[in-house]
Design brief:
The protein is mostly helical. The protein has one domain. The chain is 84% helix and 0% strand. It has 10 helices and no strands. Helix 1 packs antiparallel against helix 7, helix 4 packs antiparallel against helix 6 and helix 6 runs parallel beside helix 10. The longest helix has 30 residues.
Amino acid sequence: TNSSGDYTYQGMYDYFLYLLFAFSILIPLLTMKLLSEEKKQKTEQLLMTAPISLTGIIMAKYLAALTIFAATLGINSFNFLLLEKYGSPNTTIILSNILGLFLIGAAFIAVGVFLSSVTENQLVAAVSSIAAEIALLLIGILANKIELTFVRLTLRWFSVIDRYNPFTGGYFDIPAIIYFISFTGVFLFLTVRVYEKRRWS
């Protein structure tokens, strides 16, 4: 029935939204020591003199964290496979939600890696990452309360929830995909620049 379908969709939406906010806290715990630990243990000099490029080192650490996140997301999405067997869920909506969450997670990990690179204190890295990621999630709500159109639209442009919404309806939104990939690239680039500056300072 339609009501059953609406209930299933709403339950799915709520579940993925819960995962989104949960990951905004868990991801910083994953990234907080990726680079800050190197600085604290005075081993970052080894990174900067290693035969592999700085970009390669940063990408290796980033991909390691991304792999753990992807595995966690996969495990948390496993229950939807049971719906495939015992129910009639909308597979497109499930897959688009998973893709949306993966892209957001990839972007958040890049933010966490960057913030981990600018401090040797793991707690500072974690708290600043959580604050940044929660802000990106809630900025759309703040934007709605601002009367100045330019400021409101600018804030909404950065809103992760606004970018994620099309995925919740089963749409593989190309502009949103480009946004998250670009967002990820910018923060990884900034992380490399941090280490390049240290290498020559």
